[in-house]
Amino acid sequence: MSTKPAEALQGLRQAFADSAPADPVLRKQRERALERFMMHGFPGTREEAWRYTNLRNLTRRVFVTAGDGAISSDQLNACRIPDLQGHLLVFLDGRLQHQLSDQNLPAGLRLSHLEAQDSEDSGQTLPAFSNLNTAFNQDARLLQIDANTSVEKPLYLLFVSGQNEQPTMLHPRLEISAGTNSRINLVEHHLSLAQDENLVNSLIDINLAAGARMNHTRIQDASKKSFQICRVNVDQARDSHYTHDHICLGSALARMDIHVSLSEPGAEVELHGLMLGQGRQHMDTHTQVDHIAPLTQSRETYRCVLDGKSRGVFNGKVVVHRDAQKIEAHQASNNLLLSDQAEIDTKPELEIYADDVKCSHGATVGQLDKNALFYLLSRGIERTMARSLLVFAFADEIVAGIGEPSIRHAMEKRIVSQLPDGDRLREFV
Amino acid sequence: MLKIDNLHARVEGREILKGLSLTIGEGEVHAIMGPNGSGKSTLVQVLAGRDDYQVTSGSVTFLGKNLLDLAPEERAHEGLFLAFQYPVEIPGVNNTYLLKAALNSMRKHRGESDLDAVEFLALIRDKMKLMEMDASFLNRGVNEGFSGGEKKRNEILQMAVLEPRLALLDETDSGLDIDALKVVANGVNSLRSADRSIVMVTHYQRLLDYIEPDFVHVLSAGRIIRSGDKSLALELERRGYDWVLKEALEESQA
Ligand SMILES: Nc1ncnc2c1ncn2[C@@H]1O[C@H](COP(=O)(O)OP(=O)(O)OP(=O)(O)O)[C@@H](O)[C@H]1O
Ligand SMILES: [Mg+2]
């Protein structure tokens, strides 16, 4: 089933020995997580969930744990989203940088250390990378938004991979607890200072209490040689609302698992994602929405643009539980292949155990619209530019949905910059 | 301006244009009429460079150049413009972007610098006024959700902005209400000049009441089977196509 490359596992044991905490309780917890990981090793392509994503290149490497890196404020300013006015928290190589972060979070927003991370006792088998995260995470944080608090400015979480000599593994861990009727905009931005071959294995648990609203924008623009694994678990109580916008640009291999449980009536989730692959990049998004309670809604729109020899995977699973009547679940996966050698595997997976439901799903895979291209050419627009304009338009359907204007503009510029003739397109965004 | 000689073209293995010849002089306005499916749109699309159509023989010279050697965008740079029978909707590409990118691309080809934002807007406002279009159209996706008539107006707006040497208007009049037809005709007429030629594909005399053609041609089964002046269109309006087809058949058998 799974793969247990001896050298990589040995490397993990070594890294664990070098980094495990002195505190015996914590240490025990982490050891258990490591052993659970070791039992199965890395997921292999014979597991359904990993069928299209081969971790061969990742498991060939031996990653070390991060040391104490440094980042100057100039470096920081060069890579952060320029006009995003928010409460900034900077994590360098997985550790919160107090000097570079906003010292005073607004009232009702509290950041603390996360204790007791091991949920082994819950009885469920945890995903391999979650175990790995528990064994190794360095500065796990708990973010709490008090009931009835509206955090006006976005909370900007900047995760930076520093300059490391060896491939380094980082395991960001965040638990977010949004109180009753609270509101927050969360921006999670991953990037690298160098063209590193790091492994970033993030684990984020989100709990939304009744009536809470959260917009979560995730931008993954890390080194194109890195490995980006991310799992987001969301649990939603009555009438809560969660919106997730994911822009995936970086990494050699990216895997996103987002699992949303709509646990009480009135909970709504919107998942949007854009994967832009070039070269040999591999990008995989797995979503799972569990409609546990009646009167819940989910809407998913994913787009993927693949050039070169890049590969995309989208798997959208929707489970409607037995008593979850009168739910709505809609899913669309639209994919654009710009080269003959690019490949996409897209698949909806529906398990419906209730009878009064409204579900829809649709997937398209295609090339650029020939008619649209000819129309632009016939207006004298050069072919390269015309193609880029159409690719941008396709991608922008997702980007334009991001609520925060500064992120939207930054992403539009960023996307245009990697398109052929992008400099000439710039004036249009 | 344009000389088409014995043009043959096929699509998906089927020959549509079967030896079509037509010459268009500078400043002339030609109308092409003909039954559905006779090849009118095929002709103008071939001229604009659509690659679904294979030209199997014949030649087309445009302003002294071999038109068939040029890519679609190069044809546009040389001054060819096609108003589509079915303008394409391009969601996500803003109308203003399209106009600006197209205009700047033309200007670049002519060795002129890009228009700055103020000049560009002034120009567009002016042309929108001519076409009696609301400014809100500018911020919408190209033809996205436009009504049939609005799309046609938008085509002529683009033409007015790009100022081509040769405009091919493929059924620009169909789908227009009477007032819109006047606006569009007015837009086209305002572009008539001694160095600009216009080819109108149409089914109706009504358009020709507003834009008077110098020549009228009947296209049938991939060939021009009859040419005349504007009185030919009036006669077609009265008598339909049967008699022309019959006469053409008799001629070819003779
Ligand atoms: N892409 C294509 N694939 C297959 N057949 C085509 C294609 N384009 C045109 N044809 C065929 O070629 C013939 C001529 O079509 P064309 O659109 O040129 O006619 P038309 O004279 O413009 O007709 P109308 O007056 O209805 O607009 C038709 O029989 C049409 O079905
Ligand atoms: Mg036609």
What keyword list fits this structure?
heterodimer; A: 429 residues; alpha/beta; eleven-stranded mixed sheet; ten-stranded mixed sheet; 22% helix; 38% strand; globular; B: 254 residues; six-stranded mixed sheet; four-stranded antiparallel sheet; 9 helices; 12 strands; 40% helix; binds adenosine-5'-triphosphate; binds magnesium ion
List the helices and strands and how they pair.
The complex is a heterodimer of chains A (429) and B (254).
Chain A: H1 6-19, H2 24-40, H3 56-59, E1 64-65, H4 73-79, E2 87-92, E3 95-96, E4 109-113, H5 128-136, E5 141-145, E6 155-161, E7 168-170, E8 173-178, E9 183-192, E10 199-208, E11 213-221, E12 227-236, E13 241-248, E14 253-262, E15 268-277, E16 282-291, E17 297-306, E18 311-320, E19 327-337, E20 343-352, E21 357-366, H6 370-378, H7 383-399, H8 405-417, H9 422-425
Parallel strand pairs in A: 1-7, 2-6, 5-8, 6-9, 7-10, 8-10, 9-11, 10-12, 11-13, 12-14, 13-15, 14-16, 15-17, 16-18, 17-19, 18-20, 19-21
Antiparallel strand pairs in A: 2-3, 4-5
Helix pairs in contact in A: 2-5, 6-7, 7-8
Chain B: E1 2-11, E2 14-24, E3 29-33, H1 40-48, E4 53-62, E5 65-66, H2 72-78, E6 80-83, E7 90-94, H3 95-109, H4 117-130, E8 141-142, H5 148-162, E9 166-170, H6 178-191, E10 197-201, H7 205-210, E11 215-220, E12 223-228, H8 230-239, H9 242-253
Helix pairs in contact in B: 5-6
Describe the structure.
The complex is a heterodimer of chains A (429) and B (254). Chain A has 429 residues and is of the alpha/beta class. Chain A folds into two domains: 5-368, no CATH class; 369-429, no CATH class. Helix content of chain A is 22%, strand content 38%. Chain A is built from nine helices and 21 strands. In chain A, helix 2 (24-40) packs antiparallel against helix 5, helix 6 (370-378) packs across helix 7 and helix 7 packs antiparallel against helix 8. Chain A starts with 5 loop residues before the first helix and ends with a helix. The model of chain A has no long low-confidence stretch (mean pLDDT 94). With 254 residues, chain B is α/β, with parallel strands linked by helices. Chain B contains nine helices and twelve strands. A six-stranded mixed β-sheet of chain B has the order 6-9-10-3-11-12, with helices on both faces. In chain B, strands 2-1-4-5 form a four-stranded antiparallel β-sheet. In chain B, strand 4 (53-62) and strand 5 (65-66) form a beta hairpin. The model of chain B has no long low-confidence stretch (mean pLDDT 93). Classes of the chains: A alpha/beta (429), B alpha/beta (254). The A-B interface holds A 369-372, 374-383, 385-386, 389-390, 392-394, 396-397, 427-428 and B 48-52, 71-73, 75-77, 81-82, 84, 87-88, 90-94, 97-98, 100-102, 105-106, 109, 141-142, 158, 162. The complex binds adenosine-5'-triphosphate and magnesium ion (MG). The site of adenosine-5'-triphosphate has 13 residues of chain B, from helix 1.
